[in-house]
Amino acid sequence: MKLQQRLPLPLPVSCGFRSSAHLPHTLQGIAEAKLGCEEFVAKLLDRRWTLPSPDTRIQQIVSAPKRIEEEDGLLKDKSWFNIPNPLLGDKITDKSGPDSSFYVIRDDLLHPLINGNKVRKLDAVLPLLEDHSVTDVVTCGGCQSAHAAAVAVSCAERGLRSHLLLRGEQPDILTGYNLISTMYGNVKYVPRSVYANREETLKTYASSVAGGNGCVLSLSDILEAPLTEQIVSSSHPISTSMDDQRSLGNFSRKVVIMNEGAGDSIALLGVIRLVHHLSQSHLLGKEKAMKFVVDAGTGTTAVGLGLGAIYFGLPWKITAVMLADTLDNYRERERRLISDFKRHFRFDLDHTLREIDRGAVHWVERYHPRKFGNVIKGEVEVCQEITRQTGILVDPVYTLAAWELASLLSEKEARGDAEVVMLHTGGTLGMFGLAQRYKSYFQMLKDR
């Protein structure tokens, strides 16, 4: 398959890259001419990707009240029906009848081992690493980190080495994301006290991986070369191509540090690419109002959806269910991601920036708030009911939260003008780790 041409970016000179003085003419032209927003993003998306296509399945979930009363709860009185091939585009029908419905973007089907949101975040990252002859990737996460597993699998599939710093102690039985991380990557368990200072820990470990003849840099270093000419620790710049280096057998290492959860501005590109794909006239289109719902860990996926909707002028509202942090911290992370994105990709269209600065995402609490990672009694059974009735597996930590909100919004929009859309981010392997931690809850499935 012929690969798309990637829009060039400035690179750090300290690892043998070109300096800002050699900024590609195409990118200079974009900044100087201040192209229209959609045209600019279209050019930005003209690059190599990990996914051959941004395509994803779209299904419609119809919900209706059950005829028997059950325990109190948002979803205990619901039943669902899955329409695998719904009408889309201009054939999306007007709402009628007593039932409510919402659409599900099945990004959980993108890869058998990697969460859909992780696939989207790495969509633009991995080709960038290859283009810059990166040999090793260092990242971190919890013991059952979906991000760490995604990096391990993706790197192994593309011939890169991954080094994963996991918080805590090695479990007695490896399962779920932890097992996948161990099978595909190089895992090192880090005491919680040390992990608390993860940025310094990542740098120290990456330096040990690079050795005396390698170099260490971050994804941001690659993207903002004019600002980072002396931050890369390299005594011997790497200038040969990856293929040439591999043919030599023993070659210097170029190590990239990836933030926890892949929360870097370049990770937004894959999500924006998804928005561009979904806005085609034969899918969701550009005219109809959409209320998107997504579960939020780091919040990067939600910000990418919000930016894509603004850049392409779509009447889409992005709502993210906060799972791992406070409202203030999510808003601060949103501002940082947007600021980094504008700086890294030289986006300076004033009218669009004013809209973005007002916020790209509507952040909301979960229906039943709790400490991140905790499961409430009865939620595993709800996941089981949803899975049996629709064939869509949701997990109680992440995607059930999005399903809850999508179901609630679909009721409110049963006679409204907007369609409700849930982005299914995945989470299948997380169920294995939860089954170890919440044995009694999963035992109840057997008892039923």
Automatic annotation (TrEMBL):
Subcellular location field: Mitochondrion
Recorded superkingdom: Eukaryota
EC class name: lyase
InterPro entries according to UniProt: ACCD_DCysDesulf, TrpB-like_PALP_sf
SUPFAM superfamilies: Tryptophan synthase beta subunit-like PLP-dependent enzymes (SSF53686)
Enzyme nomenclature, EC number: 4.4.1.15
Catalytic activity line of the entry: D-cysteine + H2O = hydrogen sulfide + pyruvate + NH4(+) + H(+)
Family that this chain belongs to: Belongs to the ACC deaminase/D-cysteine desulfhydrase family.
UniProt protein name: D-cysteine desulfhydrase
Organism of this sequence: Eucalyptus grandis (Flooded gum)
Species classification: Eukaryota, Viridiplantae, Streptophyta, Embryophyta, Tracheophyta
